[in-house]
Amino acid sequence: KQEVTQIPAALSVPEGENLVLNCSFTDSAIYNLQWFRQDPGKGLTSLLLIQSSQREQTSGRLNASLDKSSGRSTLYIAASQPGDSATYLCAVGGNRGGSQGNLIFGKGTKLSVKP
Amino acid sequence: NAGVTQTPKFQVLKTGQSMTLQCAQDMNHEYMSWYRQDPGMGLRLIHYSVGAGITDQGEVPNGYNVSRSTTEDFPLRLLSAAPSQTSVYFCASSWRNTGELFFGEGSRLTVL
């Protein structure tokens, strides 16, 4: 059974720091991996989607990498800002045809960026 | 585009009552799903659908029912509410092949 772990559970950094959030998964036979952001009391917003054939994706100050063989992904946030404060969730998608959208989620890393 | 719309946003039920959480998307997505989010448990898949007329069970389907009569709508029915079903429920949709998942704002359900 696929398990997704995110470390650390919480992280507090001063504004301007570059930071890395970690995600590990136990089964390397994945279809894709997604990083989401969740603000308190809100839904999830997709940040980056990496297909299993890709090694990284970038969007603005965000860069996500994928190493399937080691079962790891990282989300790099450059020049962090207080507006980046949120919970970041990693999720992996299964590789069976009909269930490609069925994501297994980690429990998230709660990020606090202090001014 | 409104994206994924869930109603109601908040609901309080008594044990044994039934209700339906509504989910609609206007992106013509084939795939739709329901998750529940609980403290310490993360998000868990309840049911999903890969197209109109096709549904399947996820990780925690007991006590819930779904149907998919149209591409746009995917309601989640609680048959006889129990306190263990107190949670925040999220509906999500995606293109089948792309897999990028778009979420609604959530429905917070309390069962007394």
Can you write the helix and strand succession of chain A as a string? EEEEEEEEEEE
Percent of residues of chain B in beta strands?
over 45%
Structure annotation, total helices of chain A: 0
> What helical percentage do the residues of chain B reach?
under 10%
Radius of gyration of chain A: 14 Å
H/I helix tally of chain B: 0
Oligomer state of the chains in this structure: heterodimer
Q: What composes the largest sheet of chain B? A: 7 strands, mixed
Which chains make the largest contact? A-B, 25 and 28 residues
Radius of gyration of chain B (CA) equals 13 Å
- The count of DSSP E runs of length 2 or more, i.e. the number of strands of chain A, is 11
Category by helix and strand content of chain B: mainly beta
Biggest sheet details of chain A: 6 strands, mixed
Question: Describe it for me?
Answer:
The complex is a heterodimer of chains A (115) and B (112). In chain A, a hairpin with a 4-residue loop joins β7 and β8. Helices cover 0% and strands 56% of the residues of chain A. The N and C termini of chain A lie far apart (41 Å). Chain A has strands spanning 4-7, 10-14, 19-25, 32-38, 44-51, 56-59, 62-67, 72-77, 86-93, 103-105, 109-114. By secondary structure, chain B is mostly beta strands. Chain B has strands at 4-7, 10-13, 19-25, 31-38, 42-51, 54-57, 64-66, 76-78, 87-94, 102-103, 107-111. In chain B, strands 2, 4, 5, 6, 9, 10 and 11 form a seven-stranded mixed sheet that branches. Chain B has a four-stranded antiparallel sheet with strand order 1-3-8-7, with no helix packed on it. At the A-B interface, β4, β5 and β9 of A face β4, β5, β9 and β10 of B.
